Amino acid sequence: MTEKLSFRGERRADEITALLLPLQRGLQLLIPNVTMAELAPTDTPTDDGAVEQQPEWLGGQVLWRGSGVPLVRWEALAGHMLQEDSDERRYAVINRLYDTLQTPFYAIMVQGIPRMLHVAPDTLNAAVAGHVSGEIADAASEPAPGTLFTVDTELGRAVIPDVAWLEKQLAKALRQ
User: In the Cβ-directed half-sphere of 132, how many Cα atoms lie within 13 Å?
Assistant: First the structure.
């Protein structure tokens, strides 16, 4: 039986507050809420900075608080084809966690408003994630790039991203 993460009820001492970031294809990322600095509207100025060598998942830069912040398209980074963005798209500005990046922030394109929920260690269904045809598959599938685990929540299945891997990929792309 798969336990589900709860966003309702009483809070336990061992819980952390997390955010569910909605992406394309019904995918969702689950991140600790302290990693997100701000949710920026899509009318925030951008520079797609189209460079021949730039990977598809690097969507240029978002001007945030006077600085250019690299924009990551997680779906493409994980090997999915990008679709047309939702009218509710926004930029989740993320605090860098590792020193592999020179910039203190990067942004992830999200397709709506993130949802907050409380996560406790014993409620995580820590099955290795995989992707088949744009859907999150079961534990027997090959893991998708940048994916640590998949978890079930009351709001659907979510991917816990491998942030160290993501930031290494971003650092490599920015050095090109």
Answer: 6
Cβ 18 vs Cβ 116: under 8 Å: yes
Amino acid at 89: R
Nearest CA-CA partner of 150 in 136, 164, 132: 136
Other CB atoms within 10 Å distance of the CB of residue 78 = 22
CA separation for the pair 128, 97 (Å, rounded) = 22
Domain boundaries, the chain: 16-175
Instruction: For domain 16-175, give its CATH number from 2.40.50.180, 3.30.530.20, 3.30.465.60, 3.30.70.1230.
Output: 2.40.50.180
Reported as a single tens digit per residue, the pLDDT across 111-146 is 999 999 888 776 665 544 444 334 444 444 566 788
pLDDT tens digits, one per residue of 28-54 = 999 999 999 999 988 765 666 555 578
The two structure tokens encoding residue 57: 């998942």
CA angle 72, 74, 75 (to 5 degrees): 135
